[in-house]
Amino acid sequence: MDSLMTKDVARALGVSQRQVTDLLRSGKLSGEQLSDGTWLVTPRSISERRSLNAGAGRTWSAASSWALLGELSGQSTTGLSQSTLARIRRRIRISTAEEIARKVASRTVGHRYTADSIAKTASELVLTGRSAADVIDTELTSQTQIVEGYLRNIETLDSFARRHLLSADNYGDVTIYERLNSLELEGRNAPHAVIAADLVRSTSTRERSAGLAALEEMRRRWLVKHPLRSSATL
Questions:
Q1: Cβ proximity of 17 and 41 under 8 Å
Q2: pTM over 0.85
Q3: How many other CB atoms sit within 10 Å of the CB of residue 184?
């Protein structure tokens, strides 16, 4: 399917053309700006945006979103103030998996590329989403013909792209998400809650449902470990 004009995207998402342009400039929609200023938007980006319903309601800050996913994944919350921790825990308690996935969606922006070697590129990323789907659902098979991941260290995205001969491509099979956070990302795969939240971005109903189910199960386990009587004063 061909790329769409901003007026068509606005109609599909139920927002104004100006909002579409703002989303494109912030990287929250993937598109290409032509020399005359016209934007062309990829259908996949529109589908992802619609599936997350990211335009509904106020989102959470990137810092809070990352901290919440870390809390659900059982990672240490060292460094958070008591008030911030209390706010994050309250959000886990009162939010559904759908709401969590939608609210944390804006914590990161994905950049798409075409890779010279998908396998080599994947080996140096912390995998997430469809590239680590079997981590949260054994009935899913992690994709090997596509890559979704985060940088492992302090290397810049531009440096990584040059080293791996990545070419910016809105239809590419490699998606690298920005990582503006202090959450520990070690080993081959991202923390489970991060994988699940990123899997919800998928346009596949099966994958999206698996991501939501995993988030809800993590939330339920968290509630068992943090009964209201012991967390009410935090």
A1: no
A2: no
A3: 13
